[in-house]
Amino acid sequence: MAAPGPARRRSPALALVGVLLPPVAWLCALGLSYLVQDFACTAYASAGHSPPATVIGAVVVGLDVVLLALAVSAGIMAWRVHRQARDTEPSSPLGFLGLLGLLLSVGFGAGIVLVAVNPLVLEVCA
Amino acid sequence: MTTTDQQPAPTAEERARFEEVWARPRGWRRALTSVQHKSVGTRYMVTAFVFFFVGGLQALLMRVQLAQPEQQVLSAQTYNELFTMHGTTMMFLFAVPFLEGLAAYLLPLMLGARDMPFARYNTFNYWCYLLAGIILYSSFLVGMVPDAGWFAYVPLSGPEFADKAMDIWLFGLALAELAAIGAAIEMIVVVLGMRAPGMSLDRMPIFAWTMLCVAGMIILAFVPLLVGSLLLELDRNVGTSFFETDRGGDPLLWQHLFWIFGHPEVYVMFLPGAAIISHVIPVHSRHRLVGYPFVVAAVVVTAIMSLGLWVHHMYTTGLPPVTLSFFTAASMSISVASGVQVVAWLATLWSGRPRLTVPMLFSLGFLFTFVAGGITGVMVASAPFDAQVHDTYFVVAHFHYVLIGGMLFPVLAGLFHWWPKFTGRMPSPRLGKVSFWLAFVGFHLTFFPMHLTGMWGMPRRVFTYDAGLGVGLLNLLSTIGAFVFATGLVLAAITLVGALRRGERSGPNPWGADTLEWAADSPPSAPNFARIPVVGSRAPLWDPPPDDPELDRMAAAFDHAPQNVRATPFTTVLSARPGTAAVQASPSIWPLLAAGGLALAAVGLLVESGWVVGLSVLLIVAGLVVWELQNERELGAGEAKEPVGGEYLVEAPGPRSPGWWGATMAAVVLVVAVSTVAFSMLFLQVNAPVWPDGATLGTPWLSAGTGLALLVAIAASWWGSRQGPLEHDATPVARTAHLAAGATTATAGTVALALAVAQWPAGGLDHTAHAYDSGVLMLVGTLALATVLGLGITVSALVARLTHTRDVRPRIMLQNAAVLWTGVLVVWAVAWVATDLLPTVVV
Q1: Measured distance CA(A89)–CA(B610) in Å, rounded
Q2: What percent of chain B has a predicted confidence (pLDDT) above 70?
Q3: What are the structural domain ranges in chain B?
């Protein structure tokens, strides 16, 4: 039997990345948004300084944009794994994992957008 | 299932030997030593239901007190004690343990395995849980009942305002949490590695997917509460200052730690409930679950998002608006995932031919109630609305709709659904339907009026109310409803228990269900499956078996085999292809001894007796040592013969054996624990009005030496794990290498422990002086504890080397040690970041 090609050997790893990355991205988006905004504003206030609200807001939104890009990339990767598995190995669980990764990317990507818009419409260190 | 001609059918003698290996102990030995998953699962469920009825009785007493305004049936103090113990009982002693028991019973059956991966550890967890319940309820006997609420907010639960009752609560809680974390590790390993050949991830039952996610949530969310409980106990009895503002602490830290646990806890209860519904509705609608991938995605999204919603319990604590908005967004997002599951159930009902059986009635009751609770959940997820109804009966109504609708109704649906499997008897449908209607009507009569009483301004957690508030009639309705509800639940219990004697015989699959548990006998035999089933679809009992010689070969190899030791197939994570044979534990009393030792330690600390604590340590150590020796003896018996079917090794290194997964999970638990302490330190640092300027532990050489010693421990154990052949019939050659590796690891670990502990006196800190010092003490303690665990597994590896002839088992144990030591190294790194790096880089 011929050895599987590099692309097929990579597929399980890609599928796993596609499934795991969106949740991690969302958790990081929420956790870092909270940590950066809340802790930075509080730390400045505790030290008696005026917090640089614009900078803090920009950092939060920038972080969220990067994490959103990661989640979307994971979704695209998962979709490609899904299509490849569907065409070559219909009985393989990779097709399912690819689809799952895509769905998670959509769900968590939307979640990141909902977190990221807040500093754009509310005062960051109120 | 299919057979192959490569493996001869088992002879009568082989069958008899197989039955003997799996024979259950009888009489008193069965009660104390049985470790089989069905026995442990049943004990969990029965114990949890006893606590449920006790907690329910407390609720009825409270409802009697609240039936009329300004009543004096209960005193304010008694009322406080009752609502504290009601919440504690329902959350910690009923809901989570019951679901863990259900999972312990069902998962091996659903997955086609013969037992849980670490059956003795499973039993140990049960004993811890039972003893936790006994400790908590002993508070009634000694007249010191906890009264600070099930949430135990500081400072109400701190040294200033709470007496010894709070210590009883904290120790009981810690033991229950320890049990829950252990059960989670069991669930992860059984789902990932012990599925029937062919049951790839995309063919896994929804219940298994859900319990996998729930187990992850328990590890990530319950560990912070365990840490929080320890911090509070230290504040109360050792003089630390994590929650005392004057010395750099902050009471809000407790709320963070509690709700980081508390909110996922809601989904730890709801998700298994939803999974039960995902099994009951398809079977009783005679149609496959619509949208399986979407339901799996929804479960994963719900599980992950639940970890990030804790702040929505703290909307009124003065957090900044943007912080609130982050968590409002997250709270709204999760409702979409729950909605996806609801749509899948409705589509299944629509596409199938539903039967109005008792399980289906409870499922429909769940749908109606949970959707209503979900809608009020979206309402309270909004910070402005929550600010209006916070701490009113509206919130009480909301969470009872979610918890009873989302957990209790599905549990009852599941009990009526699986009762024929558990007992071999059908419960009376007539009584079951009456019990459903009483419970359903009673529930809504109890809790719907609370929305109104809350909106009209009735605060929760008060023992009476003024007649002028105008909520007397609504409260009377709630009280009447509570008794109707209780009648329905008692009738449901009578129906189920009565079926044990009078129910019709059910046969293996009375509902015509699709998952593997229905292929086993009713009730299942001790090994569940004498011949392991193979799987080719999501509905293995509705579809023809797969034509796959590799899977059939494994099934044939395990047909009434092995006969010298209990074992089950261990398969690959992704595709469940045949892998190895995992040895399963036989009956043992040692888990009870170890758990009893832990409970005795709690008692010793409560009564402040050094002798009792010393005795408890002896019991724990003795229990663990004999337990380990018994493990090694069994594994030796398993390895003594050729691989199962001549092909499947009795365990192998890496993720092909349960031990590797267990060690990895233990390392994860340690890292979560130390991260929680580090988060707490950071939180206090940025919130404290006074923090020691540029404070660091200031022992760089000791800290670096600790890290170096840990690296040596990892390297030595890893090197040892590479020595010696894996083949079953190979001559052992690595005895000396394994002993040298084990001894080097143990020495390095001991040095690491000594250096880690030495940091505390060398740092010259006083844990009572400031929260920073308290945090350092906690971090050094966590590192020391992790190192002791690393030493424990290293000693086990040495024991394995001394007791086994072949090289395989010591290799596996040294590899497991290397995994755990890696976790200890991460603990060290996080501790260093918190003690020395963050104080210098954070403003």
Answers
A1: 65
A2: 98
A3: 273-506, 529-582, 652-841
State the amino acid at position B470 in one-letter form: G
- Whether residue B686 and residue A46 make contact (CB cut-off 8 A), yes or no, is yes
What are B731-744's pLDDT values in tens digits? 889 999 999 999 99
Mean pLDDT lowest among B165-169, B801-805, B815-819: B801-805
Phi/psi at B483 (5° precision) = -70, -35
The strand pairing partners of B644, in sequence order, are B648
Sorting pLDDT into bands at 50, 70 and 90, what band is B108? Answer: very high
What is the ipTM, given to two decimal places? 0.90
Q: Report CB contact under 8 Å: B329, A111.
A: yes
Judged against a pLDDT cut of 80, whether residue A7 lies above it is answered with: no
Nearest to residue A104, comparing CAs of A81, A76, A66, A63? A76
Judge if B273-506 and B652-841 fold alike in CATH terms.
no
Separation in Å, CA of B191 to nearest CA in chain A: 16
List CB contacts of A63: < 8 A, sequence separation 6 or more. A28, A29, A32, A33, A36
Residue written as token pair 């009852």: B412
What span, in angstroms and rounded, lies between the C-alpha atoms of B370 and B366?
A: 6
Does domain B273-506 fall into CATH 1.20.210.10?
Answer: yes
Strand partners, B426: B504
Test A111 with B330 for CB contact under 8 angstroms: yes
Interfacial A residues in 44-103 facing B (CB < 8 Å)? 44, 46-47, 49, 92-97, 99-100, 103
State whether residue B325 sits within 8 Å of chain A by CB: yes
Domain B652-841 CATH superfamily: Cytochrome c oxidase, subunit III, four-helix bundle (1.20.120.80)
What does the pLDDT read at residue B6? 57
Within 8 A of A103 by CB-CB distance, chain B residues are: 293-294, 297
Contact of B690 with chain A, judged by CB distance below 8 Å, is answered with no
B643: left (phi over 0), alpha (psi -120 to 50) or beta: beta
